[in-house]
Amino acid sequence: MRRAIFFCVWTALAAGAVPTPESVLGHKPGDDFYLATYDDSVGYFKKLAASSNRIKLVSVGKTTQGRDWEIAFISSPENLAQLDRFKDMSRRLALARGIDDAQAHAMAREIKPIVHIDGGLHATEVANAQHTIQLGYDLVASEEPEYKSIRENLIVELWFSINPDGQNMVANWYRQNVGTAYEVSPLPSLWQEYVGHDNNRDGYMLNMIESRVITKATLDTEPLVFYTHHQSAPFPGRIYVPPFADPISGNMHPLMLRWLNLIGTTIAQYLDQHGMAGSMHQETFDVWYPGYIDNIGNFRHTISFFTETALYRYATPHFYTVNEFPQSRQGLESEMLYASPWKGGWWRLADACRYMYGASMAVLDLSAKYHEQMQYNKYRAARETIEKFEKEPPYAYIIPREQHDAPTAALLMEKLMLHGIEVRQSSNAWVILMDQPFAGLVKELFEPQKYPQLDQRPYDVTGWTLPYQMDIEVHAVTTPPTQEFRKGLELITSTKGLAAPFNRNANASFRAVNQILAAGGTVGFTGDDISVSDIAKSKVEAILAENRLKTVAVKEAGKAVKPARAGLYRSWQASADEGWTRWIFEQFDFPFTNLYNADIQAGRLRDKYDVIVLTDSTSRSILEGHQPGTVPERYAGGIGQKGADELRDFVNDGGTLVTFNNASLFAIEQFTLPVTNAVAGLNQTQFFCSGCLLKVHIEDAKNALTAGLSADPIVMFERGPAFETKTEFKGSVLARYPKERSPLESGYLAGADRLQGKAAALDVNYGKGHVILLGFRPQWRGQSHGAYKFFFNAMYLR
Ligand SMILES: [Zn+2]
To answer: Which residues contact 365 (CB under 8 A, 6 or more apart)?
Structure first.
């Protein structure tokens, strides 16, 4: 009895000393017109951690912009003292190896499992990272039974934000504009240095630093649940939660889907119970595409999902009337999957934070109650995945080390290892044995996607098969591997030792060429061959080794090439496609300059540049940009007619304009090129492709622009054009879709016949220069390595 009294006094004292968010920030998170930056948030959590032994801050690394990145573990002091031990148990259960059913049950009973909740990565969806502040405080300080039970049964892995750079950018932008005419104006830059919204499209490829940090930390803790908050609810719903819309990948363990659905309906029930109406399910968002960082974990048996809470703009409140609702929902009728329709009224940041807080609490409450079953199921899903691929093909994948582009194949192996996939090596190949816990992920990334016939249009791309996109030879093994074969394999943790021929087949050769040129060497191209002179042999060898290349004898010293003076157009309507291109240029050491509207309008472009690249964009966006009055004046407008004229002069004077995907239509229209778009004006039943992989054939293999490309590369086609040339066309058809059959290799394509025989890539002679039209996404999300050469080759003077 006495002990109990002492305990109560002690906790009351401890709680009293714990600072509230408003005592540190001067605002309650969610206040109208106020946004905490990431720095504010971390500053608060440091004070919170200094005042309580129920929270432990851990550094997980740095962000793209070099910011220190911290997360919190919140639980009882007793549980936190055993964090390393529980993490270790969690990892062992996740792999399921050497643990029988009885042991798994015993471990699931004993462990205090980890649940990941985060403050989102889409930085303009501002409530995400505001709600984690209050949630963190209450999880640490509250003495209510619900919170106590969470601390007793779970360890909460709380990420204040999974895009710290973006949170700072958006909060600072809003602070600058709040109270002005531009209070709700869009940010004129990407809120992740390179990829903006596509930071949630990098879940399997892990190109961005943030994706890698999150994945590494997640493999370290192996959480039961990975929950990311977003703010794009289908209107007038207030929050979109699982069950998600179909289709769904067949490579996820069914238990993941069962828990997703249970969690989603639990959130809706919890919110209704707490007076928050308007939860909506199974609308708009499917999870067919595995690139979402908040979905990919399902393939590693962490129940991973997102919710979408309603958003107006930033921290500005808004009043909605029922008249603004879609006609079908103005009657405010209950639906099976929208049981408590929202009735309109004010919607404030505080409301979004409240819904998110409730949703997070619902997930924690459920996990605290069912943690033992959830933990056992995580083990069970891993074990059954191993057993499945012991009995059915593919039993393994073999990736020869001798390849058209072997360093890119090595890169793919490294990506898999970052996901905890076991990669082995034989004398001449890399081997992935599929009887391993995360094998579903390998199959998901390696097999061609067959999109089911559905009424609903796909939300994102429908095909992504990495060996196709990266032009890598992979063989699926359809008979069980022998013990002898297995014995000859060595488990590896890196792809060291690869030295592929230094020629234009390897993308890495372009990086090496750029490094040799930068070091003052001379480089010559003859077809796919590369010759080097005027530079120390040791220097060349060092550069090649670093790029996993080796010198090969060439017949002749080719014509010396110079790096083009390159400009990359950068709009104030920030474009992830531009960002990805910028990132790839940096990764491959291409020198370039960003060109803003004013730079293009300033003219004399030919004096300064040899090549200008326009990434995927509509003509309207390039010409008009942001409408005046919607953004601070310096960000309004596009390049305008003046800019278009300057670009035309640039090509007339001998420059090369390279256009990606729909930016090609800008060039066709503005320069009146003798080219038409064969899929213009078709409706969605006649032709539709939201992203699939198509085969093209290289028509002009002698052209310097196609050097190094495979004879039949696969490209990412996404809502783009297909070209037909008119009689007066002068130039070259670089690549064409096959005439006799559908070009589809992976994903969903309606109206394939519309593409058959049409040109996919053109080199159009114009004045003294060239316009290179690429009717696809040659650098798609940093994945389509097999198509990079379509623009890499244009980056040298010819
Ligand atoms: Zn989002």
So the answer is: 146, 149, 150, 270
- Distance (angstroms) between ligand 1 centre and the Cα of 44 equals 25
CB of 521 closer than 8 Å to CB of 420: no
- The backbone region for 563, taken as left when phi is positive above 0, alpha when psi lies in -120 to 50, beta otherwise, is beta
Distance 123 CA to ligand 1 centre (A): 8
Joined tokens for residue 525: 């191209």
Q: What is the pLDDT of residues 447-494, one digit of tens each?
A: 999 999 877 788 899 999 999 999 999 999 999 999 999 999 999 999
CA of 131 relative to ligand 1 center, distance in Å: 15
Q: How many whole angstroms separate alpha carbon 562 and alpha carbon 516?
A: 11
Residues, CB within 5 angstroms of ligand 1 (ion): 122, 125, 230
In the chain, what's the furthest Cα-to-Cα distance? 97
Q: At what angle do helices 507-518 and 406-418 cross, to 10 degrees?
A: 100
The pLDDT tens digits of the residues spanning 134-155 come to: 999 999 999 999 999 999 999 9
Answer yes or no: pTM beyond 0.85.
Answer: yes
Token duo for residue 787: 């198509």
Nearest-angstrom CA–CA distance, 658 and 663? 9
3-state class of 445 per DSSP? Answer: helix
Express each pLDDT in 90-149 by its tens digit. Answer: 999 999 999 999 999 999 999 999 999 999 999 999 999 999 999 999 999 999 999 999
- The structure tokens listed for 273 are 């119970």
